[in-house]
Amino acid sequence: MTTYLLAGGGTAGHVNPLLATADAIRAARPTAKVLVLGTREGLEARLVPERGYELRFVDKLPFPRRPDLAALRFPGRFRRAVREARRLIADEGVDVVVGFGGYAATPAYVAARGRVPVVVHEANSLPGLANRLGARWAAGVGVAFAGTPLPDAVTVGMPLRREIADLDRAAARPEAIAAFGLDPARRTLLVTGGSLGAKRINDAVRARAEALVADPADGGAAWQVLHVVGRLSPFDDPGVEHYRVLEYCDRMDLAFAAADLVVSRAGASTVSELSAVGLPAVYVPYAVGNGEQARNTVGALEAGAALTVADADLDPEWIDSTLLPLMSDEERIAGLAAATEGIGIRDGAERLLVLIDLALGRDDGPAAGRG
Q1: Residue 225 falls inside a structural domain
Q2: Which residues have CB under 8 Å from 342's CB, separation 6+?
Q3: How far does Cα 235 stand from its chain's mean position?
Q4: Is 75 or 356 the better-scoring residue by pLDDT?
Q5: Would you tell me which of 2, 45, 254, 359 could form a disulfide with 117, CB atoms 3.0–4.6 Å apart?
Q6: What's the structural domain count of the chain?
Q7: Does residue 193 share a domain with residue 109?
Q8: Per-residue pLDDT for 316 more than 60?
């Protein structure tokens, strides 16, 4: 029996690909044992047990950025976390460590070094500190986006939730239209800034609610809006017919099935999921951080599969000048959709499993493509 230790977590961007990989392992290797190493503060503390996997904990240890008391304590606390991970590897007979970044990944990488093979998956086009470290001695490195600067990286795509990886949008559309109370005769613009929302997106779209759902004068396609506003700040429903507001959506597979065009942030999971299901998008990269969201869109933009607008430029006037003309251009939307279908990867979890098998000395599956 092979024992896999999957390490990582914190945000959905780390937890979701971890769980998708765990599911792929369980499907391909029913007798395998899958353990997850995470922190008590991250989303994994809830999501991993809910999915039926055994979760072990290490302390959440942010890398110190300034010379303060936390920095003085960090070396000792980190050594303790590594010892705990090393003990787990020995006691459970772990055969391979697969890391997804985040606080739990770093001690797992260090504990595994020289003992069991390490495989790293990086979801973003700009890798985080943990994965930059683990990739130095990893037996395999899988990335979601080609060009991610990690040594010997293989482009495997994003391990996706099964409901996304297996989504047939056309077949699921009637269920989706009914679930959200939408009009089956209208096209659907899906707007989302993620689970917390995005104030600039929300404000600009709300300001043009009536224009977005207005019947076209030339008899073209009429649109409706499905707006997932998130939990970031209060949002006043404009009360416009054909403009549906949700605070949170726990069935994004159905939202994708209902949609014909998407306006969205450009997180790694979002870009990967929209590409996988063939949805054309206008990405609004989050302007805070090291620019990874803008980098996540590069492949889609180069393929002609998406548009982008800077967060600072997204205002009601941009909707008038760019979004509304796009929505009335059926040929252009069809072209974006066709290009998107050409770049999407639905089997990222299975491709990552190939890398894991190779790290374990197995070679019984198709090789993933070099990035």
Answers
A1: yes
A2: 303, 305
A3: 25
A4: 356
A5: 359
A6: 2
A7: no
A8: yes
Structure tokens at 187: 């096209």
Residues 153 and 175 in one domain: no
| Cα–Cα distance for residue pair 124/269, rounded to 1 Å | 9
pLDDT of 6 > 60? The answer is yes
Higher pLDDT, residue 201 or 65? 201
How much is the pLDDT for 367?
A: 41
| Contact status, residue 296 vs residue 271, Cβ threshold 8 Å | yes
| The two structure tokens encoding residue 159 | 């391990």
Task: Determine which of 149-158, 204-213, 357-366 has the lowest per-residue pLDDT on average.
Answer: 357-366
Distance of alpha carbon 170 from alpha carbon 257, whole angstroms: 7
pLDDT in tens, 190-214: 999 876 668 899 999 999 999 999 9
Average pLDDT over residues 170-189: 98
Asked whether the beta carbons of 141 and 122 are under 8 A apart, the reply is yes
d(CA 316, CA 209): 10
Domain that holds residue 355: 3-162+346-359
Question: Phi and psi of 50, rounded to 5°?
Answer: -60, -30
The SS3 call for residue 176 is helix
Rounding to the nearest 10 degrees, give the CA dihedral for residues 356, 362, 364, 365.
20
Tokens 């099964």 correspond to what residue? Answer: 162
pLDDT tens digits, 231-273: 776 788 889 999 999 988 889 999 999 999 999 999 999 999 9
Give the whole-angstrom CA distance, residue 69 versus residue 98: 32
Query: What's the CATH code of the domain at 115?
Result: 3.40.50.2000
Q: Are residues 142 and 180 in the same domain?
A: no
| Cα–Cα distance, 322 to 334 (Å, whole number) | 16
Note whether 176 and 146 are same-domain residues: no
Is 213:224 a contact under the CB 8 Å cutoff? yes
CA dist., res. 23 & res. 166, Å (int): 13
Would 367 be classed as within a structural domain?
no
* Cα-based angle 228, 234, 235 (whole degrees, multiple of 5): 50
